[in-house]
Design a protein that fits this description.
By secondary structure, the protein is mainly alpha-helical. The chain is built from eleven helices and two strands; from the N terminus they run H-H-H-E-E-H-H-H-H-H-H-H-H. It starts with a helix and ends with a helix.
């Protein structure tokens, strides 16, 4: 009986605790207070002044210190945070600020024109496009490295100046390889006048103009690649119809001839060389 009474007391205490906890979370008036406290703690910890005063044993503090020449020096944790943020933006930069978009579209159209279905596979096309992008962008990347990254690592340039120098170098590449019609269209949509120099073109106008120009150029190159293979398909289809072989697929018969033509003219070297020659650094 004592054990039963003790068990009832424990269960009653547990039920009281659960009911008080449920009452705390079920009261809608208490949620704004808890949320305000939570947001206040986050803002206090993220504020630069509080971050400079906050020190946690064993963990690097979030500090922004003033350098001797007036520059700002960021703590290791903030530098790691900025690095991780930049890594997450790399796919967007690869697609929108390099030659990758034009190359992968042209290679995909070429594969469709050959009629080889999934040969070469997507992984091979992406690898070709990636390494060809590195080849095309290498002069720009090298200039960014020596003009901004190296001075920043040596302490001769702060992070803001390094970003501005890298941005100016990348902008020069983007403006040179963007059609004037697209630049004028997006400048008109943004309400800006015509720009007198490349440095005056803002990124909010340059990035969509560059991507639109890349798409247009890629489809133009793909159209020119598609024409000879389309002629082969039409000739093979006409021959089969004249022979009365209408049940035989023209695509199946024309595939060896298209591959033979592509190999004879050294199609891969011609295509990749033509794509690389369309860019100016």
């Amino acid at each position: 009986m004592r054990r039963l009474s003790t068990l009832r007391i424990v269960l009653a205490q547990g039920a009281t605790t659960m009911s008080s906890r449920d009452a705390l979370y079920s009261d809608p008036r208490k949620f704004p207070i808890l949320f305000a406290i939570f947001v206040g703690v986050i803002i206090f910890c993220a504020h630069p002044l509080s971050a400079q005063q906050m020190t946690v044993p064993g963990l690097p503090a979030l500090q922004v210190n003033q350098g001797p020449n007036g520059t700002q020096e960021y703590s290791l944790s903030l530098q790691i945070l900025a690095l991780m943020t930049a890594i997450t933006l790399l796919p967007s930069l690869l697609l929108g600020a390099t030659a990758f978009t034009r190359i992968i579209i042209v290679l995909s159209i070429l594969r469709q024109a050959l009629g080889t279905q999934q040969t070469p596979p997507n992984q091979v096309l992406v690898s070709i496009a990636l390494f060809l992008t590195i080849f095309i962008m290498y002069p720009t990347l090298e200039e960014i490295y020596y003009a901004s990254i190296t001075p920043y690592l040596e302490g001769r340039m702060d992070v803001i100046s390094a970003i501005e120098a890298a941005s100016a170098t990348l902008k020069e590449f983007l403006v040179v390889n963007t059609r004037e019609a697209e630049l004028a269209m997006f400048a008109e949509l943004a309400g800006d006048q015509l720009y007198r120099s490349n440095e005056e073109v803002p990124y909010n106008v340059l990035m969509p103009a560059f991507i639109t120009s890349e798409l247009k150029t890629a489809f133009q190159i793909g159209f020119l690649l598609f024409l000879p293979f389309l002629v082969i398909d039409m000739v093979i289809a006409s021959i089969l119809m004249s022979l009365g072989m209408m049940m035989l697929s023209p695509m199946l018969i024309s595939l060896p001839f298209k591959l033979l033509l592509f190999v004879i003219v050294d199609g891969w070297a011609m295509t990749i060389g033509s794509i690389a020659s369309t860019y100016m650094n």
